[in-house]
Amino acid sequence: MFTVTSYTVEKLKDPFNILPGERYEFVLELEVEEDDELYHDEGVSLRVVYMKDNNEEERVVKYEFQKTTTGGYINMELEEEELALVRSLCHKELFGPTVE
Description:
Blueprint (H helix, E strand, L loop, with lengths): L1 E11 L9 E11 L11 E9 L5 E10 L5 E2 L5 H16 L5
């Protein structure tokens, strides 16, 4: 498991209107414990493309772990709990907290 220490978000432009909905790129800076297999001395970031389509459905379209200092790809997948955390963070940043 990891902790998100900071992040940036940017709306991706589609100048030709080829893709439906809106897409956003998040770059999450992560704190990972040294005994975790995801840990790297260079630091770990998670790049996420998050989408809200024209039917108001939201989802993570793509994600990839990267070494923070070099940008090198880390071949790992998110666990379900981690993916839920990322979805929640993206939704809250873009659209505010969900009212239940």
